[in-house]
Structure formats: structure tokens, C-alpha cells
Amino acid sequence: MCLPSTNAASTSADASGDARYELTESEREAVIALKAACDQAGIAYNNLFELAKYVLVVHSSFLDSDEKAPQKRLEKAVSLMKKRNAWAKKHQLEHIDPMEALEELYQLHPDFFVTNFSHDHEGRVVVAHHHAHAPSDFVYQSKKNGAKYLAAEQFRMNLGAVDMEEARRGMCMVSITDNQLTTKRSFRYLRLVTHAQENLKSMHPNRVRSIYSQVPAFVMYLVPTVKLLLPKKIASRVNIVGNMEELGELLHSAKNPDTTVLEWAEERHAKYLETVKKLIV
Question: Angle 25-41/48-59 helices, nearest 10 degrees?
């Protein structure tokens, strides 16, 4: 499921002065320390940009006024990466190509993926899906299918921030119903959340800063149950909206709403690889 394992970083003038590829001095020091710790402990990582994203994930966990904050952040980042790698090994995600998994899911459940929103008002990239078309049957058909789903969704979340500017802002997650939800579909979605909650845990290098869920009144009673299934930090950031019009006021529409999730992923992945190539450490 891993993104390309490229540990090279740029020191060329091509990226100089471009905030998408530059680290602050404190970020640079933290990335270098994290790389050294991972190399010494034999902890696998995909590339230096991934390490930079982990540095951002753990930063707010400790106050800058704490003189031991850098070491505490380093230890937490190492711990998260160990958990992430153990999780990936448990589900055998290293044997799964995430783009191929996403393509298979899209072919079988195209309506699950929502691409008509681009950013929230804070500039965070939107990663969205449809409550009413959850691929629960596919996911629970076999362990391999369940792993493919985890790989595909984690891939999408990784693409929610493909350069340092986006990584600092964090990403926005959105789920919609668009008047297509039924009670039966609600419980299918609930079942999917049970399986997918690991994708939202802080062991991943993704900063989920805002979450919007468009839920009709007749299934509002399920919201507390769904929140209980989510990691506490994620659950605390869920904002419930009642209709698509209200949601549309909170988000920017995509320039091309007909873009498929595969086209979106290909474009975002190319930008991710550009950052991997040009990141200055």
C-alpha cells in the first residue's frame, strides 16, 4: 500500500523559495532527527516528505515552552510509525498496490467516491465519500478485499496533502447522503466505519483538521454511535450539517465536478511525487 519508497530530497535551486517544498529550520531539524532514529531502529518509511508529515502530526502534542518538547515529539513520531508499520503488516498492505485497489473499488462502487468539492474555506483539500453507497459487501467479502479498501482509502488520505503548504494546513474529510440514504444503507455504512476506523487513527501521517458529515434528520440518532466508533480526536472534529445546500456554503466546489476519483488520484499523486523529488532538507 506504500507510496513510492524514495528517500531522496532536493537541494537544487529549482525548489528554493517555493514554500511547497521548503521546511522551517525547526521542521528540518525534526525531520533529520526522525530519519536518524528510524534508520537506527530499522523503522521503514517511504520518503522524507512522509517524515515531514509525521513531524507536523506530532507537533501540537507538546508545547514549545517545554524544553523537552523536541525529544517528546521525536519519541511520539517514532511510536506512531511503529504502530503504522505493524498495522500495515497485520493487513499485509505491503502486497497491495493502492492505485490498483482504488481502481477496483471505483469500478465496483463508483458512487461511493465524491469529487465535486475541492477545498474548505481554510484551504484544506477535501477527501469525500457517499454514506449511501458504502462498499460494505465488497469489504467484508474477504480479508484481501478488506485490506484493499484500507489501502485505497489510506492512499486517498495521503493525497489529501501533497506538499508542505497543504500538510501544514491539514486536510478536510467530508461524507454526504444527498437524499439517497435509507435505514438499511445507514447500517451498512455503520458497518463500514467499524472496519475503516483504523484509517483515521493518528498513527498515519495525515492531519485531519476538519470533518463535515451531511446527515438527514431521520438517521441523526445514529450520529452518537458513529462518533463512538471513531478515535476521540477525530470524533471531536465532526460537524453535522442537515442538507447539501448548507454543506455547499462551507466548501468550495471543484472546477470540474465530473472528475473521477482515479483522475483526481493520478493528478494528486503526481504532485506528491514532485514534492518527494524537490523537498529541501
Answer: 110
Task: Name the least confident of 24-38, 42-56, 137-151, 215-229.
Answer: 215-229
Q: Are the C-beta atoms of residues 148 and 105 closer than 8 Å to each other?
A: yes
Lateral strand order in the sheet of 171-176: 113-114, 126-130, 171-176, 208-214, 238-241
Domains of the chain: 95-262 (3.40.525.10)
Q: Which residues pair with 239 in a beta bridge?
A: 212
Alpha carbons 97 and 122: distance in angstroms, whole number: 32
Burial class of residue 139 (count of CB atoms within 10 Å of its CB; 0-12, 13-18, 19+):
buried
Could you tell me which of 225, 133, 122 has the C-alpha nearest to residue 175?
133
pTM of the model: 0.90
How does pLDDT run across 145-196, given as a tens digit for each residue?
999 999 999 999 999 999 999 999 999 999 999 888 778 888 888 888 888 7
Q: CA-CA distance, 112 to 124, in Å (whole number)?
A: 21
Distance CA 150, CA 155 (A): 8
